[in-house]
Amino acid sequence: MGRAVCVYCRERAAVPEWAPFCSERCKLLDLRNWVDGRYRIPGEDAATAGGDDSDRQP
Q1: Taking all residues of the chain, what is their mean pLDDT, rounded to a whole number?
Q2: Is 5 helix (H, G, I), strand (E, B) or coil?
Q3: Which pLDDT tens digit goes with each residue over 9-24?
Q4: Which H, E and C letters describe 12-54, residue by residue?
Q5: Nearest 5°: phi and psi at 46?
């Protein structure tokens, strides 16, 4: 089996120092996508989760 490929650019081999990325650049670009909301984990919307609202201020 070959070396792991960068999960962001999918062009270069992942480097142990930045695994699973090939560089700090790819790592930061991936983080930016999470922060900007481009990546989402499927699930129930937090606003409609129906949890206990007793700790919320009016």
Answers
A1: 86
A2: strand
A3: 999 999 999 999 999 9
A4: CECCCCCCCCCCHHHHHHHHHHHHCCCCCCCCCCHHHCCCCCC
A5: -60, -35
Q: What total of structural domains would you count in the chain?
A: 1
Could you give the C-alpha distances from 35 to 2, 6, 7, in angstroms and in order? 31, 20, 17
Task: Show the domain range for 9.
Answer: 1-39
12, part of any domain: yes
The answer to whether residue 57 scores a pLDDT higher than 70 is no
The pLDDT score that the predictor gives to residue 14 is 97
Assign residue 19 the CATH number of its domain: 3.30.50.10
